[in-house]
Structure formats: C-alpha cells, structure tokens
Design goal:
Elements (H helix, E strand, L loop, with lengths): L1 E4 L9 E6 L3 H7 L19 E4 H27 L6 H16 L6 H16 L1 E6 L13 H5 L2 H7 L15 E2 L11 E5 L6 H15 L8 H9 L8
Length: 237
Amino acid sequence: MKTIDLNEFDGEKAFYHFTNRSNYESISSNGLIPSIGNNARGIEITQKVFFSMGNIGFLRICDVWINWFIYRASLYDSVLKYKDIGEEERMDLKRKFREDFTNGLYYTEDNINYALSWMLNFMKSNIVLKLDISDKDYDPFDIDEAKSHEKEEFINRMYLGYVTSKNYTETFNMHTKSGVGVDKDKISRITTHGDDSAISILKEIYSEEKEKDKNLEFAFLDRFMCYVNSMNSNIKL
C-alpha cells in the first residue's frame, strides 16, 4: 500500500476511511471489501465501504463516534445488561431508552467521560486511509439507509445536528455504491511526521481547521481534544 503524508494532498477534497491497524495487511492485498459492519446490522441493507469527505467531514464523524459511544454505553446500562427479562419487556426498555436518548437525558459526566476514554482507545488502534475514488465509485446524493430506517428526531440526535438532508448521505458519513469496494491501488495510508496513528492524524487536522476558523465548534470533539492534550504521555501505539 502507498503511503502519503498529510501535507501532500488537499484535505478539503480528500476521502478518508478509518480502519483498525490489524486490517492493514488484508487491505494491502485485497483492497476494501464492501460489507455491513457490526454496528450497522439491522440498519444498513446493502454492503458498502464508508468514508468521510474533506477535513470537516473527517472531524464530524469523529464527533459523531463519541456520541455513538455514549449511546452504546447508555444502551448497555439501560437495556442490554438485563439478561433475564422477556422480549416484550426488553422492547419496552429499548423504546424508553431511545426516547430518553433522543431527549439528551444520557449526556451525564460519567457517560461522556467513559465515551472519551473509549474514543481514545479506538483512535489509538486505528489508522486512516485516503481513497482515490471518483463518482464511478460513489453517488454524492445516495440514500442514507439509516435515515429511512430511523425517526428523524433520533437521526438528528445521533448525527449531532449535522444533518443537511432528510434522505441523502452527509459528507461525514458517505459510502460507495452498493456492492462496490475500493481497489488496493486506489488506497494510501496517511501519515504525519512519520506517524500513521489515527489519533495523530486527528490532532493535525483538528489543529489546522481550528486555525482556519476560530469559531469552529463540535459537540464532543472539542472536549475530547482537550482530554487528549491534557495527557502527559506521547500517545502512540
């Protein structure tokens, strides 16, 4: 797989894909295979490769992931930890949970701090890939299957208000056409100052975009970056 430094391309036009470091060898040999990820089962219908467009899209998906980690932690405490209950009771708990989450009732200090820690571990174990794809590979106005599956209020909460369309994909959550993968020759591993860890890539992009726009704000990512920067150790694998 080719390697490219973060400063060698225009981030505003880049397509970013996160993957666990353990997938590197497989992707180097086979490219990115379209699939339905574990977190998308029951929501996505067709197999795709997901990516973010541009630096702001990159930062927003990181923000949304922190929110997703809050959701997952809250879901466990509210629903999943109860093993010995009937299916009807479980569905009632889940409906109540989703309503409360939509209303923002799970943004407690404990849940947010847990999500920040989870996000740090996630970013430390991931690398970032640049995809050299074209409109033959993706449709910028493709349908976001999650939007058609979920209530609008829930999507707005999960996407932290970064919603510009009722049906179409957002720049932070785009995907290839159904069943379309990405050939290995169209993939490059991104580094910055010789470091390929996703946390280092995030720090560079976040700093760059904040320098451009002093008023740029994120729901949870700003706090996460303060959390990362407050740590005394150099965060590398």
